[in-house]
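Example (one chain per record):
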Amino acid sequence: MKALITLTASESKRLIARGVKGMSCVQNALNNHAVIIAGGTTNAFVAEELLGVTIEDKTGYTMGIVTKGELGISRSTKKTAPYVIVEGKVIETPWKEYLPKLKSGDIFIKGGNAVDHTGLTAVMVSDASGGTIGAAQGLLYARGVKLIVPIGLEKMVPDVRQAVEFMTKSSVDESIGHKVGLIPMLGATPVTELTALETLYDVEARCIAAGGVDGSEGSVIIAIEGLDEEVQRALRDLQTVKGEPPVSVR
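Predicted structure:
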């Protein structure tokens, strides 16, 4: 059986978060190791799914944000600090303080701004020290800590490597909004809508189109194929994703 699914950007975020939760490595880390859920609007959905919490203002779970047609910084008055989970329990230690304790088996979850067809991801940064990924990436590589990047297909770009090389040739002189750089996240495991669907269900998933209007900007159209009962199960579950309200600046 083959079926078509259309997901808005926020519906995609919910599905991706459920896909992250369904990963065996994440379940193992939740039970036996440590998980850091760094900032990002998609990561706010991930935190909700992993912890059963509700984050009313998801723009308060990020620092950088693209809104009103420009690059900016979240002005939310309802900030939520990134969660640090150790053996299934949230601890009060700030993530930067816990970072040196990470080891193999632990997981660091970081949002991104670009992904290409090879699975290479990158994140925009305006902080001179490289922001979250600048602080974490070296340690993650050195310790063998798995880096998971939940990222929607709306952020698909032609070639992340070329984009990074272009951005690093010279500095940005002018910008509509904040000036940013672009840091690649080599070795990261991206989790897109396709990854989520294939993790949660025994189906093959392909993105066949994208875009929309009147609130459906950034939507993706996905085809899934598998045994009838598995496709039907996916469609039933996806009805609970449909209608997810857009992430809005409050």
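Caption: The mean pLDDT is 96.
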